[in-house]
């Protein structure tokens, strides 16, 4: 009897010891599970979760106030910096504003859902370099995530999702009911040192990511998806920005995958802020009605020093397209493109000098754009309808166009003449099918190199830090 009792006590002790051991292991596991690591331009001293501010990730509760209160509260930490964690869940929200020295971090299963209640979106002024909204003459609905006059902002995650639920906006656009210009998913204005990385953006009401009047921008590992028929769902629009680096970007959309801009007609000319020093690397684009990379059409502040490398386009209308026109003014110069793999395309080289689409009727008909120094090399294309459609402006020849080492496989139903050129001037070498007379072949002994710059840009020397967010239970 006593022996049996002893054995029972012994067993109980062993079991409870095991229990302790289990618990200890478990709590260590928990800590591990709830620590998140990411790379960023700066790490932050202070952390909070959206849940701490009353956020509810049920897909129904509106979290606009939770986001804005969290960010307003965290902004007190100033240059020590702060980060806001968004856990797994569906977080319905209206628009909110970012602050400086701040990181918004999305868990991999976190989805921000943009409110579809159009009435609740505040309206802000048109951009000074545009003078007007693009969908309607007046103001613009503020972007879902907005920031102005900021420094050092990171929006990142583990490929978490920001879903613009844009269908209601597309309907309003098609039925011409919009009173103001549609919002973007993220707009950052007048700012410096911005990172957007490791996120997926879905169904934006209009453009997806719009840095404007901003410098030192780094975007990496971004997926952008929208129906290929959705209106103006441009992927990334660097607009009057300096030092921008876009890397590892995958975009399926209804408009240009990357659209480089710098203001519209007389407004862009007088604002006078170019987009320059832009790197685009490892971009994959699917956009049957638009370009992989567009320069313009709003380019009135100028576009200079764009370096595009390793571009893949599948079922996309054109590759790197320049869009401009009389009245735009400004310039597009020192453009370098190296390494493109293109599958199913209407025009590999497309330059349009009569794009039209004016802000208003007050544009200056003498404001002619200067287009020069446009370099393309190392290109393989297949199933192409026309190799090139290059149209300058009468009295304003587009010069210094250089194309080398390009093999363009034409489609079975290709157009009869693969090249059409007017008011353009330049050279080629090693281009198949043979180019138009305005772009003579320099031959194998004196090849047109269309050299890509060798010196790196400052934005390439960013040092990313290893940062973490630790879930706290207090
Ligand atoms: C994005 O995620 C990948 C894979 O986890 C990681 O290697 C990379 O450093 C991340 N980039 C940034 C800028 O967060
Ligand atoms: C966000 O910023 C815009 C533009 O500065 C401003 O109009 C708006 O009131 C701000 N929203 C909040 C909630 O502070
Ligand atoms: C933001 O910066 C711009 C350009 O420097 C300036 O014109 C504007 O007044 C600033 N806005 C605020 C709210 O500080
Ligand atoms: C991120 O998510 C998107 C959408 O689900 C997916 O297509 C993409 O492959 C993911 N990217 C990575 C790096 O996991
Ligand atoms: C020509 O382009 C192809 C495809 O991009 C590339 O593999 C090859 O190295 C290029 N040739 C030269 C001489 O640069
Ligand atoms: C070639 O392009 C046409 C459209 O111009 C498309 O219908 C067809 O599927 C493409 N073929 C291949 C093999 O990709």
**Number of helical elements:** 4
Q: Name the CATH class of one domain.
A: Mainly Beta
Taking all residues together, what is the mean pLDDT? 93
Unreliable spans are 11-31
Task: State the share of residues found in helices, binned by percent.
Answer: 10-25%
InterPro entries: GH28_Enzymes, Glyco_hydro_28, Pectin_lyas_fold, Pectin_lyase_fold/virulence
Keywords: Glycosidase, Hydrolase, Signal
Protein name: Polygalacturonase
Family: Belongs to the glycosyl hydrolase 28 family.
Describe this structure as you would to a colleague.
The protein has helices at residues 2-33, 64-74, 167-174, 265-271; strands at 35-40, 46-49, 58-62, 82-86, 89-93, 96-97, 102-106, 110-114, 123-124, 140-141, 145-148, 151-157, 160-163, 186-189, 192-202, 209-212, 215-225, 242-252, 258-260, 275-286, 291-295, 303-314, 318-323, 331-352, 370-391, 398-410, 419-422, 424-432, 465-470. The chain is mainly β. The chain has a domain at 144-458: Pectate Lyase C-like (3 Solenoid), CATH 2.160.20. The strands form four sheets. The chain has a 21-stranded parallel beta sheet that branches. The longest helix is centred in the first third of the chain and has 32 residues, at 2-33. Residues 11-31 have low confidence and may be disordered. The structure holds 2-acetamido-2-deoxy-beta-D-glucopyranose (6 copies). The site of one 2-acetamido-2-deoxy-beta-D-glucopyranose has 4 residues, from β17. Keywords: Glycosidase, Hydrolase, Signal. Pfam families: Glyco_hydro_28. Belongs to the glycosyl hydrolase 28 family. It comes from Penstemon smallii.
């Amino acid at each position: 009897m006593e022996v049996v009792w002893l054995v029972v006590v012994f067993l109980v002790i062993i079991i409870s010891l095991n229990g302790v051991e289990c618990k200890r292991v478990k709590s260590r596991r928990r800590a591990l599970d709830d620590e998140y690591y990411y790379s960023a331009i700066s790490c932050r001293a202070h952390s909070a979760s959206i849940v701490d501010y009353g956020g509810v990730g049920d897909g129904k509760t509106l979290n606009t106030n939770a986001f804005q209160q969290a960010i307003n509260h965290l902004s007190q930490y100033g240059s020590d910096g702060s980060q806001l964690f968004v856990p797994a869940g569906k977080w319905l929200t209206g628009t909110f504003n970012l602050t400086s020295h701040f990181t918004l971090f999305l868990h991999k299963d976190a989805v921000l859902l943009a409110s579809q209640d159009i009435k609740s979106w505040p309206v802000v002024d048109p951009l000074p370099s545009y003078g007007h909204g693009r969908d309607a003459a007046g103001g613009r609905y503020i972007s879902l995530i907005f920031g102005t006059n900021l420094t050092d902002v990171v929006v990142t995650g583990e490929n978490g999702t920001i879903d613009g639920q844009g269908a209601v906006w597309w309907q309003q656009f098609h039925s011409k009911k919009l009173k103001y210009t549609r919002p973007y998913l993220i707009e950052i204005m007048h700012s410096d040192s911005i990172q957007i990385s490791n996120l997926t953006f879905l169904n934006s009401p209009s453009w997806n990511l719009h840095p404007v009047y901003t410098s030192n921008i780094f975007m990496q590992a971004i997926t952008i998806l929208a129906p290929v028929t959705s209106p103006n769902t441009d992927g990334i629009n660097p607009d009057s920005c300096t030092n921008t680096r876009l890397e590892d970007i995958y975009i399926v959309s209804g408009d240009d995958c990357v659209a480089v801009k710098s203001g519209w007609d007389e407004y862009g000319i007088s604002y006078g802020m170019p987009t320059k020093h832009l790197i685009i690397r490892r971009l994959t684009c699917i956009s049957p009605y638009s370009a992989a990379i567009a320069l313009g059409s709003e380019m009135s502040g100028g576009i200079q020093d764009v370096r595009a490398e390793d571009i893949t386009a599948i079922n996309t209308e054109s590759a790197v397209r320049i869009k401009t026109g009389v009245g735009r003014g400004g310039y597009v110069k020192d453009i370098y493109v190296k390494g493109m793999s293109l599958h199913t395309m209407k025009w590999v080289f497309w330059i349009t000098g009569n794009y039209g689409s004016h802000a208003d009727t007050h544009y200056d008909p003498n404001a002619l754009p200067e287009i020069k120094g446009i370099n393309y090399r190392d290109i393989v294309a297949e199933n192409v309808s026309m190799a090139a459609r290059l149209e300058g402006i009468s009295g304003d020849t587009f010069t210094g166009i250089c194309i080398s080492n390009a093999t363009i496989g034409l489609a079975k139903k290709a157009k009869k003449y693969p090249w059409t050129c007017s008011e353009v001037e330049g050279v080629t070498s090693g281009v198949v099918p043979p180019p138009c007379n305005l772009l003579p072949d320099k031959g194998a002994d004196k090849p047109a190199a269309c050299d890509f710059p060798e010196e790196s840009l400052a934005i390439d020397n960013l040092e990313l830090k290893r940062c973490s967010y630790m879930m706290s239970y207090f």
